[in-house]
User: Fold this.
Amino acid sequence: MGKSKRLSKNKRKKKRRTHKINREAKKYIDLMNLALSNMNGNFTYEFTNEDYVLYPYLNEGFKKGWKVLKSKDMVKELSCNSLCMTISILNSSIAEKEFDKLNPLEKMYLFFISYMLEDDKEGDMRFALKKADIRILIEKKRYEKYEQENNARGMKKSLKYINDLEQKKKQIIDSNGMNKLGVGSLFGIDVCNNVDCEFLHEYKMSKGEKWSSSYSKLCLNITDIFKGIVWLIMCLSYGNYRSLHNIPKSKRELSINLDIRKIIKKADILLIPTMKMYDNELFYENNTLDRKRKENISKGEYWVYKDLDIKNNKIYKRSIRHLENKHYVVAFMDLYIDWKLPEETKEKIEYENFKEFLNGTGKKPMLKEIYKKKKNIGGDERNNLSENIENSITNHWLYVHRDRIYDMIEKWV
Assistant:
């Protein structure tokens, strides 16, 4: 084969490879636009084929997010949301599949798992000063609003906050960024903030105008895209829509009506008792095993509730060390007892509430709906997603591996 023919063949291969990459990139760019339009109806920064430069980063995030989801060491505590039960169930359902079987929507969700895990990174002095300037600008707008409303108390509060930020800026400048006492929040990375997002992607954005523009758009809209992706997944799962494009962009509420008792019966969900429940005799049966369980709590050998038997109104205690070596959805229990009541009365009411849950009597705990609600985010009114858990017996949900449950109980219970 001649040299010119080999070059021509290589060009055709390269062209086909480029077309394939562009097709994949378009798929995810379109998904981001769809997520944005479902969250906000309309938006200023629409992604186009000029933003295909984002695809390698998104693709890297799909793989990284999958590793995070499967990691024994990482607690899947995602930032930028108030949907702990919804997110935990999503994490569990996606983790049960094979990576190659995931659809583009689920892969986009994995990208956000890789990006939105809490991080201890810090920005530099330049970053901290920029964040301070933005906070001052937002507060000055708030001050002007208070001024128009003739709200003297609000104006006074805003001025105090602005002066405090100016003092913090001075401290950072005078110490050349070395004195971080009381100004740590300005250095800390908040992945939900577009300024912090741009700092994290500073290297990529420095590659040129095209890269800078695309990553700026991504950072400015990153929380809305994430919430839109979650909304789309939930609408397909619970809204009886045949395709993503059938979901009305004006839709603000999604009925779910998920009976928490029923999903605890079917799924690998662990209920983690409160410390009062661990210590309360009422939550133990009069047998050798249960007496030993209560005795071992003081030694840090915790048990959890698992396997709800609805027919017999019973849920079983399982020692954490005897659980299977895998991930679980865990829910931290909170039976909401009035703190003003005497201690003995609180213990009895807590137990009675728990028995009602087991028996299915009284008001059933249920994930009723998720819905869009306007919220001030970074000085702008934007849609946020919230979940409505009626008659809840829990205060937080997570998706974690068995080996991290001890640490979580020590830290939070």
